[in-house]
Amino acid sequence: PEAIMVGELANRMAERVADVVKALMQNGMMVTQNQTIDADTAELIVEEFGHRIVRVSDSDVEQVITTSEDKPEDMKPRAPVITIMGHVDHGKTSLLDAIRNAKVVAGEAGGITQHIGAYQVETEAGQKLTFLDTPGHAAFTSMRSRGAQVTDIVVLVVAADDSVMPQTVEAINHAKAAGVPMIVAINKIDKPAADPDKVRAGLLQHEVIVEKMSGEVQDVEVSAHTGQGLDELLESIALQAEILELKANPDRNAEGAVIEAQLDVGRGPVATVLVQKGTLHQGDIFVVGEQWGKVRAMENDRGERVKIAGPSVPVEVLGLNGTPEAGDVLNVVETEAQAREIAEYRAQAAKDKRAAAGAATTLEQLMQKA
Ligand code: GTP
Ligand code: MG
């Protein structure tokens, strides 16, 4: 059974096509990059390159995890990545700001400006937590569809004076589809019209049963304005994170996900990358989506220059040849030639796909006219 094109296999492993073709030759197979190989052969090659394969069905190599397998003994604890989601105006940004300000050293508070849409705080107990500034539902969905699972925990913010709204339901569905545990933050508890039990009842209708209703989902009453419940919320997050036992190997080539990216007038393309595995170093060569680059400089969430960034650390990366998209996966590779080849392959593949889609539409239009 045909399974995967050689070029596509190389692409998914972030390896050079020539190297994959060579490996196939050494296994007695003479193929070019546009030929397909079966799933068993693909698996053999993938393992030879030290990657891991995930099969969707017997004959279909749907996904090759583009990372080498890490040995259990190399796995070290990492900070949880938390995404705050919820309906418009329910206080997501306010809550993030309140958490950040509460955790910033006194006296520094006013002076700290957030530079990137992600940051790390440290709790009293010394636990580090990485927060993603709500990337919006669209970005979250697109990241998920690209296989970039960036978040470990979703904090669902629901305003106590407003209860469950359409985007609350969307967020619940996203979290469930992604299989990510949820913590409910019932916000604006300081408001006279606050009715937290109404929120709990509203959630129940969407099969989110909070602890106060004898369920398993942690719920915390908070106020971004007064700071009430913030410590409890952080404790809930830390508890949830502990259960997840999150680990990553920091001593390998970095892999990460683009949280946001833009073209900066003075600095060129800039991407905020959440490192998920390994450690990203200044000078590393990487491929990210259809772009590639060499890390020229990195800045942390406080705008400070850093030379390295380990698992769960968000950094702003400079040195890209183009602007990637949110959700694109970054892989560090060995050589510039390799990076360029993979990026070009991906760009061409995307172009072909668009052209094919365009041709199909034209044909359809012609048929309709006929
Ligand atoms: P979008 O990003 O537009 O979806 O909104 P958001 O969810 O980020 O809400 P945001 O933090 O911007 O807050 C919306 C409004 O609610 C602002 O006017 C806040 O001042 C107010 N607000 C947020 N949290 C609280 C709270 O705990 N208590 C009270 N009283 N008001 C709050
Ligand atoms: Mg906001």
From TrEMBL:
<protein>
    <recommendedName>
        <fullName>Translation initiation factor IF-2</fullName>
    </recommendedName>
</protein>
<feature type="binding site">
    <location>
        <begin position="133"/>
        <end position="137"/>
    </location>
    <ligand>
        <name>GTP</name>
    </ligand>
</feature>
<feature type="binding site">
    <location>
        <begin position="86"/>
        <end position="93"/>
    </location>
    <ligand>
        <name>GTP</name>
    </ligand>
</feature>
<comment type="similarity">
    <text>Belongs to the TRAFAC class translation factor GTPase superfamily. Classic translation factor GTPase family. IF-2 subfamily.</text>
</comment>
<feature type="domain" description="Tr-type G">
    <location>
        <begin position="77"/>
        <end position="245"/>
    </location>
</feature>
<feature type="binding site">
    <location>
        <begin position="187"/>
        <end position="190"/>
    </location>
    <ligand>
        <name>GTP</name>
    </ligand>
</feature>
<comment type="function">
    <text>One of the essential components for the initiation of protein synthesis. Protects formylmethionyl-tRNA from spontaneous hydrolysis and promotes its binding to the 30S ribosomal subunits. Also involved in the hydrolysis of GTP during the formation of the 70S ribosomal complex.</text>
</comment>
